[in-house]
Sequence to fold (301 residues):
Amino acid sequence: MKVIHGLRYFKPLKKKPVVALGIFDGLHRGHQRIINNLLREAKRFKTKSLIITFFPHPQGEESLYSLSHRLELLKKMGVDLCLIIRFNQTLQKVPAAEFIRDVLVSKIRPITIFVGRNFTFGRNAEGNWRTLRDYSKKSYFKLRVVDVLTYRGIPVSSSYIRSLIRKGDFSRASRLLGRPVSIVGKVIKGNQFARALGYPTANIEPEQDIIPPFGVYKIKARVAGGCFPGICYIGDRPTIKNKKIAKAKPNIEIHIFDFKDNIYSHRIQIEFTRKLRDQKKFNSLTALFDQIKNDIHLCGQ
Fold:
């Protein structure tokens, strides 16, 4: 998949593309429905499929997935091109009609545009599928509006999935995502405390904003070309907390079972299988050590 960072770098294609517009944060099952329609239409017209997305999030929402994670998933789905338009103060003031005329019609020149029924764009989010429909009637392009997917009567949306992950409802969030709840991040150096206890951990700096609540989890770690079972802790280390070194963000640490490779600076994906317990403050390091052994035993190790 070719990624184009910025509208000024986009060159009109020889053959008009099929386009899907959206943020696609999380690339959940509703987004997948839009993109699958996009791919089928592009195949039918024997032309390129083009995703147009915006970064950062126009509504300032915390990210379910980082931009790089979204791009990886779009590539796996088979999308040909992705144009990333930076959402800044200038774009924020552009009227919806002007965006359609100057960007979509004049520069992108799509055969068909796909949007979700709840998609909005333009100054003050004034544009929606109806605005696009008015231009499609002028034969500039065909418009395909994809209905919002529902789950047990609730619209599937990134904001709903954010709320599920925040409260630890992985089962429902995974169903709506179409894949396990996960964190993608970089392995960074820690304070080596867990290693001193005999359980070396990898400390993770997450790419995305939304992470599960404090606690201990059974996981799968995708790193170094493999998928390995392990355990993950998310929290603020209440038993060994140093008030002088308080962190604004929670610690994310994983212990990968029977794994000895050096993965510092590697990019890693942590998939959450189930929660083992909440975070707890222990009266001693011995009690903490015993609990860690029990947590690992609960993971089947």
